[in-house]
Every structure is written in C-alpha cells, then in structure tokens.
Amino acid sequence: MYRISDWLVAEGPHVADMGALLSGLAERLLAGGVPVARMAAMIETLHPRFIGAMRVWEPDGDVRLRRLTFDDPRVVAAPKRFTIDELQETGDWVEFKLDDPRIDDYDLLPQLAQEGHTHYLLMPLKFREGPLQGLSFSTKQPGGFTGAQSRAIRSLQPSLSLTANVIATHTMWREVLKAYVGEVPGDLILQGAIRRADVRRVEAALIMTDMRGFTRLANASTPEATVAALNAYLDDVVPAIAAAGGEILKFIGDGVLATVPFDTTANAAAACAAALAAAQAIRQAASNVGIALHVGEVAFGNIGAGDRLDFTIIGRDVNLLARIEKICGEFHEDIVMSQAFAALCGAPTRLVTHFTPKGFDGEVAVFAPA
After folding, report:
1. pLDDT digits (tens, 9 = 90+) for 113-163
2. Class of domain 195-369
3. Max alpha carbon distance in the chain (Å)?
4. DSSP letter assigned to residue 63
5. Residue-range domain boundaries for the chain
6. How many other CB atoms sit within 10 Å of the CB of residue 133?
7. Separation between Cα atoms, residue 99 and residue 96, nearest integer Å
8. The CATH number of the domain covering residues in 2-178
9. pLDDT level of residue 8 (50, 70, 90 thresholds)
C-alpha cells in the first residue's frame, strides 16, 4: 500500500474533485488485490443550502454525487442511525460484517447487505478544522475483507485524510465564492485576480431587476419580515436566471444584476433570447418586479483600498442598464429593453419612449415586449 499512499500525497491533491480521487483510489486498490465493490466519501461543506456531499464509486458506473440539504427529510427525520454520526461521536472507525444483526439499526447497511456486500469499513478523515469526515469501503468478497486487506485500507488513513482535506478545502472555497460573488468572478479570484485594477472584459446580455414597493415594505415591516419577503422575491428571480444560463453577479438591496455571457457575435442573439425568456419567467412568478434588459460589455474588476476589496462589474453598459430600469416605474412596464437588445432578442417589441439618461449624451430608445 506504500505506492498508493505515495500517489495520494503526490498526485491526489491535483485531481479534479473527490469523485476523481475515488476513481483513482479504486483503480489502485483493485490492482493491489483489495476487492472493493463500493466506496463513498461523506464530506461536510460550507454552503448556504447543503450540509455536505456524498460521492459514491461503484465498479460499473460513474461516481454518483448526492448533495444533502439542511431540510432533506431523509437526513433530518431519518428513522435510523447514520454510520457517519457514530464515527463523529466516537472519533473511531466504524466496522461491520454485514451478516451482523446490529446493521438493522443503521440507515444504509441493510441495503448493502441485500445487494451482496459482506463487509463495511468507515474510515475517519481528520481535517484541520471541523468535524471528522468519512470514507467508506465495502466488499462483496465472501467472508469480507481479509485481515491483510483491512490493514491495507487502514494504512491509507493518514494520506487519505491529508489529500481529502486539500480537495475539500478547495471545493469549499469555490462554493463559498460562487455563493457570494458568482461562479465566473469566483474562479477568477481563485486563479489569482486579487489585485486592484485587475480587469476582465465580458460580452453579455444584461439583466437588472428591481422589487417594486420595497422601500415602503421595509419602512412598515420588521427587519425579519423584510428579509423574508426579499428572499421570497429572490426565489422567483434567481432560478429563472439560472435556468436561462445566466449568472447572478450582484444583489444590490432589492435589485439583482445578472448576465448571460456570449463568446462570439453569432451567439449574442441566443444570449438575448435567453435573457428575455428569463425576464418573462420572472414576471410570471413575481407580480412586484421591474426588469431591464440590455446587451453590451461589462468589466469584472477589483476595487477597494488596502486589504478590503470588492470584485464587481463596471462599465458604460452597466450604467445604461441601471438608467433604463427606471423607465419600468415611470411608464408602468414590467419589462423594458434597450434598442440594441430589442434588435437581437428575436421577439416582437414596441417603442415605449425616448429619453436622455443621466450622464449620457443623446437620447436612448427604450422598448418593451409587444
């Protein structure tokens, strides 16, 4: 097993994710004579929706990913005990021969026994911070793992803990950054775009939404009620944008700023059509919203001072989008768009008004869906 440990330390931290680590580990265990039939990594994460993720390797398929949510009834109201709970309570390995009647007290083990598994080992993974995580091994070998095979698996604990910690930490930072700044900005930050004035330009269809009556609501409600109403509104907005292939870049009070990027001029029309579809889905779901649409260039950039930075988007087209959004309220329109967007979106439109945006020279035409 020394060679596997060496691989885990030297190459394991550089694999794509925990699923790739399981696949590489399984390949090496099987080649070394350890007949694993299933492995599962149970890793808690730092995410606003998910408790953690479980990745399962089996010989005849890709690694499966199951994300565990905080309100998942299979987790919060499970009638049986989870082996990971016992591991975290005792700090020790959990091991069962699967003909042991005690397995009936646990959630997964009877199912494994029915599928022909004979032996189950759950390894504690000791991370630098947080509770113990777990990586399970099971076999269908008659009689279970031999003593030598079990010792070989156990010998991998230090190197597996180290490697899994590195991969999980990287995944955690990706997920935290995605939750707070968006996927593209988060990736840029992890790639080193952390200096002031680092700028990346992106062509995109642009979406800005505004919750109508928010100031009145906030003035008349408790902070808790205001936050609940705002979250309910965002539950209508965010999924529609995600379904269109868009990315949320900013929550600005009750406003949402998002993009549907495109990489070539030929793809601009498809991006605009997708952004319009998202706007129409939002309008169907939420009655208290105004939406502005535009197409152009945004620049991702770091602004700030000293050790405090914000990764934001800036540019002429962002400013124009914000000015166009004000037309929604003035003309009682749910969706408005720039002339450039109207020309590309592929849908019938009608002229709403011409106006001169503050800070811009010359009039701008604003349209709405026909």
Report:
1. 999 999 999 999 999 887 889 999 999 999 999 999 999 999 999 999 999
2. alpha beta
3. 82
4. P
5. 2-178, 195-369
6. 23
7. 8
8. 3.30.450.40
9. very high
